[in-house]
Design goal:
The chain has 336 residues and is of the alpha/beta class. Helix content is 24%, strand content 16%. Helix 3 (51-60) runs parallel beside helix 11.
Length: 336
Protein backbone atom coordinates (compact mmCIF):
# COMPACT_ATOMS: atom_id res chain seq x y z
CA UNK A 1 0.00 0.00 0.00
CA UNK A 2 1.25 3.49 -0.77
CA UNK A 3 1.37 5.89 2.21
CA UNK A 4 -1.89 7.69 1.40
CA UNK A 5 -3.16 9.77 4.30
CA UNK A 6 -5.90 11.86 2.71
CA UNK A 7 -8.77 10.40 0.67
CA UNK A 8 -11.32 12.49 -1.25
CA UNK A 9 -14.50 10.92 -2.68
CA UNK A 10 -16.89 12.69 -5.10
CA UNK A 11 -20.08 11.11 -6.43
CA UNK A 12 -22.13 12.24 -9.39
CA UNK A 13 -25.64 10.95 -10.02
CA UNK A 14 -27.25 8.31 -12.21
CA UNK A 15 -24.70 8.08 -15.00
CA UNK A 16 -23.68 4.88 -16.75
CA UNK A 17 -20.12 4.31 -17.90
CA UNK A 18 -20.59 5.21 -21.57
CA UNK A 19 -22.48 8.39 -20.78
CA UNK A 20 -19.80 9.71 -18.41
CA UNK A 21 -16.57 8.35 -19.86
CA UNK A 22 -17.41 7.63 -23.50
CA UNK A 23 -16.26 9.72 -26.47
CA UNK A 24 -19.58 11.54 -26.63
CA UNK A 25 -19.55 12.59 -22.97
CA UNK A 26 -21.11 15.96 -22.23
CA UNK A 27 -18.46 16.41 -19.52
CA UNK A 28 -15.17 16.83 -21.43
CA UNK A 29 -13.29 18.30 -18.47
CA UNK A 30 -14.11 15.19 -16.42
CA UNK A 31 -13.94 12.57 -19.17
CA UNK A 32 -10.85 13.94 -20.95
CA UNK A 33 -8.87 16.50 -18.94
CA UNK A 34 -9.13 14.83 -15.55
CA UNK A 35 -9.26 11.34 -17.00
CA UNK A 36 -5.84 11.94 -18.64
CA UNK A 37 -4.35 12.62 -15.20
CA UNK A 38 -5.25 9.33 -13.53
CA UNK A 39 -6.31 5.71 -13.82
CA UNK A 40 -9.80 4.90 -15.08
CA UNK A 41 -11.47 1.86 -13.53
CA UNK A 42 -13.57 0.81 -16.48
CA UNK A 43 -15.21 -2.18 -14.80
CA UNK A 44 -16.49 -0.41 -11.67
CA UNK A 45 -20.14 -1.02 -10.70
CA UNK A 46 -22.81 0.43 -8.48
CA UNK A 47 -24.25 -1.97 -5.94
CA UNK A 48 -27.95 -1.08 -5.98
CA UNK A 49 -30.80 0.99 -7.31
CA UNK A 50 -31.93 3.59 -6.48
CA UNK A 51 -29.44 6.18 -5.21
CA UNK A 52 -29.55 6.00 -1.42
CA UNK A 53 -28.23 2.45 -0.84
CA UNK A 54 -25.19 3.11 -3.02
CA UNK A 55 -24.05 5.95 -0.78
CA UNK A 56 -24.69 3.86 2.33
CA UNK A 57 -22.68 1.00 0.81
CA UNK A 58 -19.64 3.24 0.40
CA UNK A 59 -19.34 4.00 4.12
CA UNK A 60 -20.76 0.88 5.77
CA UNK A 61 -20.93 -2.14 3.46
CA UNK A 62 -24.64 -2.50 4.22
CA UNK A 63 -26.84 -3.76 1.39
CA UNK A 64 -30.26 -2.34 0.50
CA UNK A 65 -33.75 -3.05 1.73
CA UNK A 66 -36.99 -2.06 0.03
CA UNK A 67 -37.23 1.32 1.78
CA UNK A 68 -33.67 2.16 0.78
CA UNK A 69 -34.38 1.08 -2.80
CA UNK A 70 -37.16 3.67 -2.88
CA UNK A 71 -34.69 6.36 -1.71
CA UNK A 72 -36.12 6.52 1.82
CA UNK A 73 -39.06 8.80 1.04
CA UNK A 74 -39.81 8.61 4.75
CA UNK A 75 -36.92 9.12 7.17
CA UNK A 76 -37.80 5.98 9.06
CA UNK A 77 -35.76 4.21 11.74
CA UNK A 78 -34.35 0.80 10.84
CA UNK A 79 -36.12 -2.05 12.60
CA UNK A 80 -33.99 -5.15 12.89
CA UNK A 81 -35.33 -8.65 12.59
CA UNK A 82 -32.11 -10.66 12.93
CA UNK A 83 -28.50 -10.97 11.85
CA UNK A 84 -26.85 -12.51 8.82
CA UNK A 85 -23.31 -13.05 7.60
CA UNK A 86 -21.28 -11.17 6.53
CA UNK A 87 -22.21 -8.51 9.08
CA UNK A 88 -25.50 -7.45 7.48
CA UNK A 89 -28.24 -5.87 9.56
CA UNK A 90 -31.47 -7.64 8.71
CA UNK A 91 -34.68 -5.65 8.77
CA UNK A 92 -36.48 -2.68 7.27
CA UNK A 93 -36.18 1.08 7.44
CA UNK A 94 -33.52 3.68 6.72
CA UNK A 95 -31.74 5.08 9.79
CA UNK A 96 -29.50 2.41 11.28
CA UNK A 97 -29.14 2.10 15.06
CA UNK A 98 -25.84 2.72 16.80
CA UNK A 99 -25.19 -1.04 16.81
CA UNK A 100 -24.60 -0.98 13.02
CA UNK A 101 -21.01 0.16 12.40
CA UNK A 102 -19.76 2.47 9.69
CA UNK A 103 -16.48 3.88 8.46
CA UNK A 104 -16.65 7.04 10.59
CA UNK A 105 -16.65 5.03 13.80
CA UNK A 106 -13.58 3.18 12.60
CA UNK A 107 -11.81 6.45 11.80
CA UNK A 108 -12.77 7.97 15.14
CA UNK A 109 -11.39 4.95 16.99
CA UNK A 110 -8.02 5.42 15.30
CA UNK A 111 -8.07 9.19 15.91
CA UNK A 112 -8.34 9.83 12.19
CA UNK A 113 -10.44 12.74 10.93
CA UNK A 114 -13.37 12.86 8.53
CA UNK A 115 -15.93 15.27 7.14
CA UNK A 116 -18.86 15.19 4.78
CA UNK A 117 -19.14 18.29 2.58
CA UNK A 118 -22.69 18.73 1.26
CA UNK A 119 -23.51 21.45 -1.23
CA UNK A 120 -26.60 23.54 -0.39
CA UNK A 121 -27.07 21.97 3.03
CA UNK A 122 -28.88 24.70 4.98
CA UNK A 123 -27.57 23.76 8.44
CA UNK A 124 -24.81 21.36 9.48
CA UNK A 125 -26.01 17.77 9.94
CA UNK A 126 -29.30 18.58 8.19
CA UNK A 127 -31.84 15.74 8.14
CA UNK A 128 -35.57 15.28 8.72
CA UNK A 129 -37.08 14.24 12.03
CA UNK A 130 -37.52 10.49 12.39
CA UNK A 131 -40.69 9.06 10.88
CA UNK A 132 -41.38 12.15 8.77
CA UNK A 133 -41.43 12.62 5.01
CA UNK A 134 -38.07 13.71 3.59
CA UNK A 135 -38.66 17.20 2.13
CA UNK A 136 -35.40 17.14 0.16
CA UNK A 137 -36.56 14.54 -2.34
CA UNK A 138 -37.20 17.38 -4.78
CA UNK A 139 -34.96 20.40 -5.31
CA UNK A 140 -36.14 23.94 -4.64
CA UNK A 141 -34.49 27.20 -5.66
CA UNK A 142 -31.70 27.91 -3.18
CA UNK A 143 -31.89 24.46 -1.58
CA UNK A 144 -30.89 21.62 -3.87
CA UNK A 145 -29.43 19.47 -1.10
CA UNK A 146 -30.65 15.85 -0.98
CA UNK A 147 -30.45 13.93 2.29
CA UNK A 148 -30.50 10.64 0.34
CA UNK A 149 -27.12 11.60 -1.18
CA UNK A 150 -25.61 12.14 2.29
CA UNK A 151 -24.97 8.67 3.75
CA UNK A 152 -23.91 9.97 7.16
CA UNK A 153 -27.50 10.93 7.93
CA UNK A 154 -28.56 7.27 7.96
CA UNK A 155 -26.54 6.25 11.01
CA UNK A 156 -27.74 7.16 14.50
CA UNK A 157 -24.18 6.95 15.77
CA UNK A 158 -23.51 10.08 13.67
CA UNK A 159 -26.79 12.01 13.80
CA UNK A 160 -27.23 11.52 17.56
CA UNK A 161 -23.70 12.72 18.30
CA UNK A 162 -23.11 16.33 19.42
CA UNK A 163 -20.16 16.39 17.00
CA UNK A 164 -22.34 15.77 13.93
CA UNK A 165 -22.47 19.50 13.17
CA UNK A 166 -18.67 19.64 13.08
CA UNK A 167 -18.37 16.58 10.85
CA UNK A 168 -21.14 17.05 8.27
CA UNK A 169 -20.98 20.56 6.91
CA UNK A 170 -21.70 22.68 3.87
CA UNK A 171 -19.47 22.48 0.82
CA UNK A 172 -18.17 26.02 1.31
CA UNK A 173 -16.20 24.84 4.34
CA UNK A 174 -13.98 22.74 2.08
CA UNK A 175 -12.04 25.73 0.75
CA UNK A 176 -10.69 26.74 4.16
CA UNK A 177 -10.06 23.14 5.20
CA UNK A 178 -7.90 22.55 2.11
CA UNK A 179 -5.57 25.41 3.06
CA UNK A 180 -3.23 23.10 4.98
CA UNK A 181 -2.68 19.38 5.40
CA UNK A 182 -3.40 19.62 9.12
CA UNK A 183 -6.89 21.06 8.54
CA UNK A 184 -7.74 18.64 5.73
CA UNK A 185 -9.57 15.55 7.03
CA UNK A 186 -8.17 12.10 6.39
CA UNK A 187 -11.48 11.38 4.62
CA UNK A 188 -13.31 14.11 2.72
CA UNK A 189 -16.64 12.91 1.30
CA UNK A 190 -18.04 15.46 -1.12
CA UNK A 191 -21.57 15.60 -2.54
CA UNK A 192 -22.63 18.26 -5.07
CA UNK A 193 -26.21 19.48 -5.08
CA UNK A 194 -28.98 18.00 -7.22
CA UNK A 195 -28.04 20.19 -10.16
CA UNK A 196 -24.24 19.93 -10.01
CA UNK A 197 -24.22 16.17 -9.48
CA UNK A 198 -26.11 15.74 -12.76
CA UNK A 199 -29.30 14.38 -11.18
CA UNK A 200 -31.63 17.10 -12.47
CA UNK A 201 -31.84 18.36 -16.04
CA UNK A 202 -32.85 21.12 -16.33
CA UNK A 203 -32.43 22.44 -12.81
CA UNK A 204 -34.93 24.45 -10.78
CA UNK A 205 -32.69 27.53 -10.94
CA UNK A 206 -32.40 27.46 -14.73
CA UNK A 207 -29.02 25.77 -15.00
CA UNK A 208 -28.82 23.00 -17.63
CA UNK A 209 -28.01 20.21 -15.17
CA UNK A 210 -26.90 16.78 -16.32
CA UNK A 211 -23.26 16.26 -17.22
CA UNK A 212 -22.98 19.84 -18.46
CA UNK A 213 -23.45 21.17 -14.93
CA UNK A 214 -21.32 18.35 -13.52
CA UNK A 215 -18.44 19.54 -15.69
CA UNK A 216 -18.80 23.18 -14.64
CA UNK A 217 -18.82 22.18 -10.97
CA UNK A 218 -15.75 19.96 -11.44
CA UNK A 219 -13.85 22.85 -13.03
CA UNK A 220 -14.34 24.87 -9.84
CA UNK A 221 -13.80 22.31 -7.10
CA UNK A 222 -11.42 19.63 -8.38
CA UNK A 223 -8.53 22.08 -9.03
CA UNK A 224 -8.85 23.24 -5.41
CA UNK A 225 -8.41 19.65 -4.24
CA UNK A 226 -5.53 18.90 -6.62
CA UNK A 227 -3.70 22.09 -5.56
CA UNK A 228 -4.12 21.43 -1.83
CA UNK A 229 -1.07 20.57 0.31
CA UNK A 230 -2.75 17.38 1.57
CA UNK A 231 -3.50 16.02 -1.89
CA UNK A 232 -0.07 16.89 -3.27
CA UNK A 233 1.70 15.26 -0.32
CA UNK A 234 -0.22 12.00 0.11
CA UNK A 235 -3.72 12.31 -1.31
CA UNK A 236 -6.06 10.23 -3.45
CA UNK A 237 -9.19 11.48 -5.21
CA UNK A 238 -11.90 9.06 -6.37
CA UNK A 239 -14.64 10.32 -8.70
CA UNK A 240 -17.48 7.95 -9.47
CA UNK A 241 -21.26 7.79 -9.80
CA UNK A 242 -23.74 6.32 -7.36
CA UNK A 243 -25.48 4.14 -9.97
CA UNK A 244 -26.11 3.81 -13.69
CA UNK A 245 -29.01 5.59 -15.37
CA UNK A 246 -31.63 3.48 -13.59
CA UNK A 247 -32.90 -0.02 -12.80
CA UNK A 248 -34.50 -0.45 -16.19
CA UNK A 249 -31.40 0.76 -18.01
CA UNK A 250 -28.62 -1.24 -16.31
CA UNK A 251 -28.90 -3.31 -13.13
CA UNK A 252 -25.83 -5.46 -13.72
CA UNK A 253 -23.30 -6.27 -11.02
CA UNK A 254 -19.81 -7.58 -10.50
CA UNK A 255 -17.68 -9.06 -7.78
CA UNK A 256 -19.96 -11.94 -6.79
CA UNK A 257 -22.69 -9.57 -5.61
CA UNK A 258 -25.83 -11.55 -5.08
CA UNK A 259 -29.14 -11.49 -3.23
CA UNK A 260 -29.00 -9.89 0.19
CA UNK A 261 -31.03 -10.72 3.29
CA UNK A 262 -33.20 -7.64 2.76
CA UNK A 263 -33.43 -7.50 -1.05
CA UNK A 264 -33.46 -10.45 -3.42
CA UNK A 265 -32.48 -8.10 -6.26
CA UNK A 266 -30.30 -5.22 -4.99
CA UNK A 267 -30.73 -3.50 -8.37
CA UNK A 268 -34.55 -3.88 -8.27
CA UNK A 269 -34.57 -5.49 -11.72
CA UNK A 270 -31.14 -7.12 -11.44
CA UNK A 271 -28.28 -7.93 -9.08
CA UNK A 272 -26.58 -4.51 -8.92
CA UNK A 273 -26.40 -0.84 -9.78
CA UNK A 274 -24.89 -1.13 -13.24
CA UNK A 275 -21.53 -0.28 -14.78
CA UNK A 276 -20.49 3.27 -13.90
CA UNK A 277 -16.68 3.49 -13.89
CA UNK A 278 -14.46 5.41 -11.49
CA UNK A 279 -11.46 7.68 -11.87
CA UNK A 280 -8.61 7.60 -9.35
CA UNK A 281 -6.15 10.50 -9.18
CA UNK A 282 -3.05 10.49 -6.99
CA UNK A 283 0.71 10.84 -7.11
CA UNK A 284 0.57 7.04 -6.74
CA UNK A 285 -1.37 6.56 -9.99
CA UNK A 286 0.04 6.84 -13.49
CA UNK A 287 -1.66 9.38 -15.77
CA UNK A 288 -3.83 8.22 -18.65
CA UNK A 289 -3.95 4.57 -17.62
CA UNK A 290 -6.80 2.20 -16.88
CA UNK A 291 -7.64 -0.93 -14.94
CA UNK A 292 -9.99 -3.66 -16.13
CA UNK A 293 -10.23 -5.25 -12.68
CA UNK A 294 -13.84 -5.47 -11.48
CA UNK A 295 -14.73 -3.21 -8.57
CA UNK A 296 -17.87 -1.89 -6.88
CA UNK A 297 -18.80 0.39 -3.97
CA UNK A 298 -17.98 -2.34 -1.47
CA UNK A 299 -14.54 -2.53 -3.07
CA UNK A 300 -14.14 1.21 -2.55
CA UNK A 301 -14.99 0.89 1.13
CA UNK A 302 -12.58 -2.01 1.54
CA UNK A 303 -9.86 -0.06 -0.27
CA UNK A 304 -10.31 2.98 1.98
CA UNK A 305 -10.19 0.70 5.00
CA UNK A 306 -6.98 -0.84 3.65
CA UNK A 307 -5.41 2.62 3.31
CA UNK A 308 -6.15 3.42 6.96
CA UNK A 309 -5.40 -0.13 8.20
CA UNK A 310 -8.97 -0.77 9.30
CA UNK A 311 -10.96 -4.03 9.33
CA UNK A 312 -13.58 -4.51 6.63
CA UNK A 313 -17.25 -3.85 7.34
CA UNK A 314 -20.37 -5.43 5.89
CA UNK A 315 -20.05 -6.62 2.30
CA UNK A 316 -16.52 -5.19 2.18
CA UNK A 317 -15.71 -8.51 3.87
CA UNK A 318 -16.94 -10.52 0.88
CA UNK A 319 -14.43 -13.31 0.16
CA UNK A 320 -12.48 -12.61 -3.00
CA UNK A 321 -13.70 -9.00 -3.29
CA UNK A 322 -11.21 -6.99 -5.33
CA UNK A 323 -9.53 -4.10 -3.54
CA UNK A 324 -7.28 -1.46 -5.05
CA UNK A 325 -3.81 -2.83 -5.73
CA UNK A 326 -0.96 -2.25 -8.14
CA UNK A 327 -3.38 -1.94 -11.04
CA UNK A 328 -4.54 1.31 -9.38
CA UNK A 329 -1.39 2.35 -7.51
CA UNK A 330 0.60 1.96 -10.71
CA UNK A 331 2.98 4.93 -10.70
CA UNK A 332 5.87 2.96 -9.21
CA UNK A 333 6.08 5.48 -6.35
CA UNK A 334 4.43 3.48 -3.62
CA UNK A 335 6.81 4.59 -0.93
CA UNK A 336 7.17 8.03 0.59
Amino acid sequence: MPPIKHVFVINIENKGYDKTWGPGSAAPYLSQTLRSQGVLLDTYYGTAHNSQPNYVAQISGQGPNTQMQSDCQSYSPFTGTGNASPAQAVGTGCVFPTSVPNLTGQLNAQKLTWKGYMEDMATPCEHPALDTVDPTQKATVGHQYAVRHNPFMYFSSITDSPSCAQHVVGLDALTADLASATTTPNLSYITPNLCHDGHDSPCVDGQPGGLTSVDEWMKVWVPKILASPAYKADGMLVITSDESDGPHSDATACCNEGPGPNAALPGITGPGGGRIGALVLSRYTKPNTWSTTSYNHYSLLASIEDIFRLPHLGYAQTPGLNRFGLDVYNSGRNRS
